[in-house]
Amino acid sequence: MGEDENILEELDDIQKNGLEALASVQDEAGLQAWRTAHLGRSAPVMLAFTRLGQISKEMRPMVGQKANQVKLALEAALKTRAEAVKTASLRQKLDTERLDVTLPGRRPTMGRLHPAAQALSEIIHIFEEMGFQEYRSPEVETDELNFELLNIPAYHPARDMWDTFHTTVPGTILRTHTSPGQIRAMREMCPKPIRVILPGMVYRYEQTNASHEMQFNQVELLAVGKNITLGDLKGTIEGFAQRMFGEAVRVRMRPSYFPFTEPSADIVMECFVCGSKGCPVCKYSGWLEIAGCGMLHPVVLRNGGYDPAVYSGFAAGLGPERIALLKYQVDDIRNFWQNDIRFLEQF
Amino acid sequence: MKVPLSWLKEYVDIDLSLIELADVLTMAGLEVEDVLLVGLPNPYEQTGAPQRREVSIHGLSWDPEKIVVAQIDEVMPHPNADRLVLCRLNDGTSELVVLTGAPNLFEYKGIGLLAKPLKVAYAREGARLYDGHQPGQVLTTLKRTKIRGVDSFSMVCSEKELGISEEHEGIIILDDDAPTGRPLVEYMGDAVLEVNILPNMSRNASMMGIAREVAALTRKPLRKPQANLPANGPSIAGKARIQITDPQLNARFVLGMLDGAEQRPSPYRVQLRLRLAGMRPINAVVDATNYVMLEIGQPLHAFDYDVLVKRASGQAPTIITRAAHPGEKLTTLDGVERKLDDFTVLVCDTAGALSLAGVMGGQESEITPATRNILLEGATWNFVNTRRTTSSQKLSSEAGYRFSRGVHPALSSEGVKLCLQRMAEWSGGVIYSDLVDEYPLPAADPEAEISTGDVKRLLGIELTAAEIAALLSRLEFACRVEGNSVFAKTPPHRQDIGTGVIGRADLAEEVARIYGYDRIPATYMAEELPEARIRRPIQVEKLVRQSLARLGLQEVINYRLTAPEREARLTAAQPEAVQPAYITLKNPLSPERSVMRRSLLAAVLDTLEKNARLRDRLALFEVGPVFLPLEGQALPDEAPRLAMAMTGQRRTPAWDSPDSAQLDFYDLKGVVEGLLESLHVGNAQYSPTDNPAFHPGKSAQVTVNGSVLGVFGELHPQAKARYDFLAPAVVAAEFDLAALVDASANRYEILPVPVFPPVLEDLALIVDESVLAADVEAAIRQGGGKLLTGVRLFDIFRGDQIGAGKKSLAYALSYQAADHTLSPGEANQIRLRILRRVEQLVGAQLRS
User: Fold this and answer.
1) For the segment A151-161, what is each residue's pLDDT rounded down to a tens digit?
2) Which B residues, 193 through 232, put their C-beta within 8 Å of a C-beta on chain A?
């Protein structure tokens, strides 16, 4: 009997010793050694099984069960310990692999569109959403299309408004505005309704300085139909301004003069920089000019093939570079065509 | 135009603030660009913080406590200084002695008590003024000081010190009726509105013109100056005749007369107004002509009548108006002898030309100190001829400005009468009781029609005919309502209203202006939408630009204007005989920008050169037209092009990889391939090119189905040498965008993603050095057929092992069927077919 009871106590000790030894194991090698010592073929708990034959029949199931419990306990403890050791050793390894995350990254080479092109395409995109389609016309134009057919005869006082580059071919000039495209579009589409946007480069015989260029982009809107009003013109530009600069932006229309429109207007918009409170961008006026526009002059409609008694329409001109100038607070318009990479890369 | 507020108020009551007035005018199309304060207080408080200012206002405000009207009772010599005088002065509260060096007081020095005291502008200690001794306008505060032993703490002011003009030669001597002791700002403080007169609003280039607008906009009555000739004066009959040669050039000519003018300065208030309006006072006679021009917009010209009589050998002069004869000359009153053009209209007498009609008088008949008897001209001139004369003679004058925009003939007689009246008032003399008036081409003053429907259709607002008539009546249109239509007769001071559909648009603008543009509601078009049109070139261009940016290139946009020499840097290798034709400017701003470009690549290379030293790696592109003149046509072919240029390192340097290989042909080719792939251009062929701008061995031409898309490659060393590049190589490309558009596929088919695994195999093929990679690949593809789904060149080897003059090209191949997994036998079949084909076509041997 004594031998039988001793073995139960012995098994308790085996478990206790095994768990104690496991607690100090720190690495993979220690785990291996511990497994051999405590769960190997000659480990005390294994030897206990071999001694079962010597145990009395009555006690044998109890001792066997106990030995099994001890073995399972040791195995479970090993599993837990092994995971802890693995985690600790991974942590240790990762600790040695620290990068300086503040070092700069390796950049894939990146290209960009020119800022003027970005501004232009943003404007075109907005007007396309509003139903206007892009239409292009030549940059080298005839005097007839650039002036005469737009109700600007030779020696008209309004000719002062455009300083013109003439070519050595008589009657051929560099277009001073995108407006000759109005006549071209009307003549192509008459008598259908028109809603087009005419973007492109225009030229002025003008010494360049921080706010004047001899070459710049213009975007012209042209709408022709049977019931197009000055109110529609205002709404169209307001819709544009709100999409471009924010829903809250208000516009104001005031009379102006262009020979090819009547009534003519300038559209000013609340300064988006200061919210119309006054700042250097709007020269403290609270307003920014965004478009010159008006209802198509009857002479222009007629030159385009439309009967002004039946049709009406509007035209409006915007300056993409000027809008970009305001939006990004560029101080010198000449930056656009100088193409200094230090300027271009910022957009 | 400069509009003094006080002058404006003579014709219309204004109860708006300065800021409100500026806004009302601006919103009616008379933009107030600037307001110059001449004494009046600034409506914007000086808070220092940025604040909104609807109008730009600057200038000097006169402190009513410190700047007053005073009178000088006696001018006494200074005990120690010849160039200074002491003035016994009464400022309304006390008597004191003030020191000044004003030379215009010297004539009163030491003559004792003045019979008529001199009224002056007097500034007390602490007054803020402009420093009279410094150039420009420098603010200063009057402080107590001692000058030559005499206490000085106040001063009598010049115009410069008060911000009226640059005049600092003498002090202001006011008119005798100036009230001593009154704050100067109350007596003559003013504000000058700088109004931008649009070309179609030249009728408003006068005080009356602006006043008429203010009256219409604020619904106030307009006070027109009344001019009547005296009933009892001498008659002009027989004194002068008028002969108009061409009424188209000179619709009306009016003469009036005044005898016995005294040559003296105008009253100070007249001089002040002229100065504030931007003109220089001269003498009472000339000032009267300028004053009336500014007042009602009719330029006038005064002749010395006695000089004209002398020229007519004692007879009554005949004034003749005509176009200049070929080669005719005239010396104008600025002393310049002018050669005249045949479009220039002249005022002549029987002895010859007297003046450039409507632009500038001649020297001989001008008003001189000896002039006593005045013949006064008020006329109407053809605006086109006047305009051509002012521009060809480079002569800008106030008269020329008005006549070159058109002056209504009704103003001719009104102007003459008003001017004679002002002259008599300011210079004395007797006005004749009648005029000589030739008016061969009366103004039409057309009647135009606008209906309620027109207003709705053009402006988008609902107005009744009566409301439309009321709006137009405020601008002095004589309106008649018939049903829904308003018939508006143009008032006799404006010439900008047409007839028919044009007149309707003209009236619509006036209705909108007076109604208020701001009140027109913003609406969106309720029109039928036009049909959608697809413009493939625009779509493809957009795609090209986006693809190139994605491929790592920076877009640039250059001036389209260039110089042939700039482009010759790229293309000089061409034979001399082939001189390209350019669109050439007649009036270039600089020789650097004298023609429209023919080469887009030359422009991109200029930009690459400018930036080359700023970055280790540069890759640029531009899309845009070149301008190719067409034989016998006015307009050139504006051919769209794409140009690219790259130089420097292949990769942007990083901190652990500072250097990479230099960009070369294959980097650019990769970009070209990437671009063609995004455009879905199939079947591109690359072949050597003899384009002289490129290295003959390192450049290629890209063709699709026989049409050339473009060329690219390394710049020819000689071309590169004409630029300033440090890098060993520059690679560049120029493409025809129209050809790219044609080659690009609008639609393309997508292959299904394969379900069965591929068989992968590497083959190294030994070929002669001269065999092109494209030919080897073509042979592989031919041999492999449809089951060959991938061909990738992964290595090129040269060495003794394979023999001299040979290269080994190693390909990674994949074989794949859509419907089953290939067996080893099938794969072997494909392999054998490929090897057979490459041997046949390019003489390739399998490298074992």
Assistant:
1) 998 877 777 77
2) 198-202
